Amino acid sequence: MRLDRLPISVLKTRFIPGGWDMLAFMLVVAFFIYVAEAALGLTGSLARLEATPISLAPSALVGYAARTALRMLIAMLASLLFTFTYATLAAKSRRAEVVLVPLLDILQSLPILGFSITILFFLSLTPGRVAGAEMAAVFLIFTSQAWNMAFSFYHSLRSIPYELDEAARSFRLSPWMRFWRLEVPFAMPPLIWNMMMSMSGGWFFVVAAEAINVGNTKVTLPGVGSYVALAIEQRNLGAIGWAIAAMFIVILVYDQLLFRPLIASADWFRLEQEAGLTPSRSWALTMMRRSQFLGLVARLFVGVLNIVGKSGTPVVIRPKGEIAEGRRRIGDFIWYAVIALVGLVALLKAVRFVFSEISTAEVGHVVLLGFFTFLRVGILIAIASLIWVPIGIYVGMRPRVASIVQPIAQFLAAFPVNLIYPIVVSSIVLGRLNPDIWLSPLMILGTQWYILFNVIVGASAIPPDMRYAGQNFHVRGWLWWKRIALPAVFPFYVTGAITASGGSWNASVVSEVAEWGQQHLTATGLGSYISRATDAGDFQRTVVGIVVMALFVVLLNRVFWKPLFARAERKFRMT
Amino acid sequence: MNANAQALNLAPLLDVQGVCKSFRKPDGDELVVLENVNLTLRPGEIVGLLGRSGSGKSTLLRAIAGLELPSGGTVNYLGEPVLGPAEGIAMVFQSFALFPWLTVLENVKLGLEALGHPEADMRTRSLKAIDLIGLDGFESAYPRELSGGMRQRVGFARALVVHPNILLMDEPFSALDILTAETLRNDFLDLWGEGQLPIKSVLLVTHNIEEAVQMCDRLLIFSTHPGRVVSEISIDLPHPRHALDPRFRALVERVYVEMTSKPRGDRVGHKAERFPGTGIGTTLTHVSSNLLSGLLEAVSEPPYNGHADLPAIAEALAMDVDELFPVAEALQLLRFAEIEGGDIKLTREGSEFAKSETDERKRLFARHLLTYVPLAAHVRRVLDERASHSAPKSRFFDELEDYMAEDAAEQTLRTIISWGRYAEAFAYDDARQAFSLENPA
């Protein structure tokens, strides 16, 4: 029994501080000072914020990076809270499910800039204070993180193995115990993976979230995003370089302090009871396990959870059975009627709001713009697939190479598109290129990596026997790709392509427009339409834009991706 | 052994009266899986529920555990109706159902935690249960580090730690290899015999006849489709019971006879009975052609020469009832064999099949398939009649759903596809989800 594999709660020895304790203690103290400092900034007034403009000095970047990292952490915690409540409600209540799941689907396909409509609301909560602007920024980051996490948790809750469910019920676990002992652990591995993806998504939009610019409202919160925005405005290439370095360090710190430990501990929660998986390693997790100080903190936390759990009223666990059919039907009828009514009222209101400003012809035009963006996304996904599928297969079959490529790709996925503007805009202007074509690659800049990620995972999951069989029968060249490699990774590829496609739509809002100093380039499409509308503070047009985009994305998922995924699952699954 | 005679005089722990369970099919008809089951459990006895899969014995166990409500009838525990998982009834699961992220100790503690026991008390009791069941030294291990047998010991410890009056066991040994299962069974029986277990009675679901005869004081034998208690057998052999003891063999033989004597209600639902001519509503259990040929060959060879005792052949082939019966019944359906009184007897065609080469076997199989399996004949007729000689799977699926539940229809179609392919009676394209007459050249 290796000591470092024991969970925190099992180590019950006397408290003797050790080296790991010192390290843990220092980290905790540093964290609290850092949060306290940041909190002080919240109470300041907006006027003072405007009086202290963003500085492009590299030394200022340290503080900005810390601010941005904290915003992301808060947004991540908010996303977790949202995930645990929203997804749980959707999974447990049949009636809530019919509303919440499609709603989540729509929310997921809305471009994050669409949520900038809410900024004014947050600003109005604390007039003249920074807190409101900070809330708005955190909320924008939250909208780029929460949805896929909630979906992942919902799917896990729906696929709890029935024997574990029965065991939990027959031993009369309270819902609270069941949640923490069964549901959260079971959902952990996919949730952690989604948290990592969400973090990348958050970075991608960090400029939009921090340098708030809606109509006449301009707020620039100190952070890496605002730093980048200013660097672009002033055409400062050196500053762009510093921003990239700062971002890289923050991502690295997050990776080491948060995600590595999470991944390593997630190995516990895997259901496959077979040994033999190489356990992931993390020094931070080792520190947490070895440090008795953190052990105490963890036990305290668990104790609080238990007290909260016990304080409730005793629960009655009901068996699965048929409730009185008639009563259920009546309840359903009332519920659906209410939903339909609310939906109808909302629709009428939205239509009246939108058409007070906009003609039907313009709506038609917006749909056409959507079609242009659709063409871009389609072509780019195809090109990216041609490039990354072979590379992903090559890398996936070589675990050593994969361990090097994975973190690099992960960093690139988080790379905000704004940082590429200087290169792209300069090249287009110098080469007199057509922005309608040459701005397009920006869309897929951050999302193509999902194709690579998933193909790597798929290729590394090809059973060795299958590879040996291929070698044994001298299957080589194109035949090998056609009969072995491509079919084996196909379901994984589809998963990656769905993510990449959804992400590209979302990214079109920041990539169909590009600026470098005074040079502004625009590509014709739905993304630039939405971008222009939010810049002008034109709510009607923003709403039309995001609704059309959401329709495109949802429709595409229903008509194309989901059937393809179902087919891939049926035909190419390994067992 | 806790005296049976004394047990009879005690008030029942559990009283099950007229329990039924049915599911509503998509077309609104009811599918009955459990029909009018009565059962009384008294302190000090181990009662076995023996039947094939689909006999509803697990459903009954779940009704008693309060996990599923019966559609009719009552389940009373200590005089109170069971309306949810009751304190004092604990369960051991076939697949162990351990929480992989909890250690052995934490898994065992779980039931006590849910009851809100104080920490110190939980610890002592859990360690005692772990000790009792022979898991000493494994307290901090995770389930993934344990072998199957050790995992199920955790399952037992977790159930015993709450000191239940009734221990429910849902095929607790069937996921283990034969040797491990035997060891675990004997350990359990030893503890039970010595009165060391903090339980009053045991209800055991199994499809292993020898296991049932070895462990139980009383056996209830279930029929399938719908599940019904067809007979009750008392077993008063003294413990330890030996499988080679002639009295033990006689009891095993008797159970086999009981399980094969009644003609199985093949047709499911009411519509099929109203239209007996159609007959396509028979649920087919998927049995591969390899197993069919294998059993035919085994029975045709010496020492059986076409007529075998089912317990003997089960033993010789190391097959469970649950594995053997579907094969035997498929052979009966195809008129390659007859089953009666715990024996299997090959028909003339059955013997002929066993002696033939591949091509002749396929011809014979095709003839019997199209003659005696109405669904196969139906599929073939539809394909012959259509100009395209092809038909979507959904066409037959919808038809079958009038007679059976969705998964049964799925399984029946899978069987027909597999048999049809072996017989080369028709082809099936999974990508298009369609039957056709064209076999790839």
Question: Would you write up a description of this structure?
Answer:
The complex is a heterodimer of chains A (575) and B (441). With 575 residues, chain A is mainly alpha-helical. Chain A folds into 4 domains: 73-269, Orthogonal Bundle (MetI-like fold); 282-315; 324-356; 357-575, Orthogonal Bundle (MetI-like fold), CATH 1.10.3720. Helices cover 75% and strands 3% of the residues of chain A. Chain A has 25 helices and 4 strands. Chain A has helices at residues 19-42, 46-51, 58-92, 94-109, 119-125, 130-143, 146-158, 162-170, 175-204, 206-210, 224-233, 237-269, 283-290, 292-311, 325-355, 360-396, 399-413, 421-431, 435-438, 441-444, 448-460, 464-472, 477-511, 526-535, 539-572, and strands spanning 211-214, 217-220, 513-516, 519-522. A two-stranded antiparallel ribbon of chain A has the order 1-2. Chain A starts with 18 loop residues before the first helix and ends with a helix. Residues 1-14 and 273-279 of chain A have low confidence and may be disordered. Chain B is an alpha/beta fold and 441 residues long. Chain B folds into 3 domains: 4-261, 3-Layer(aba) Sandwich (Rossmann fold), CATH 3.40.50; 266-284 and 373-441, Arc Repressor Mutant, subunit A (Orthogonal Bundle), CATH 1.10.10; 286-368, Orthogonal Bundle (Arc Repressor Mutant, subunit A). Chains A and B meet through helix 8 and helix 9 of A and strand 6 and helix 3 of B.
List keywords for this structure.
heterodimer; A: 575 residues; mainly alpha; MetI-like fold; 4 domains; two-stranded antiparallel sheet; 25 helices; 4 strands; 3% strand; disordered N terminus; B: 441 residues; alpha/beta; Rossmann fold; Arc Repressor Mutant, subunit A; 3 domains; 4-stranded antiparallel β-sheet; 17 helices; 16 strands; globular
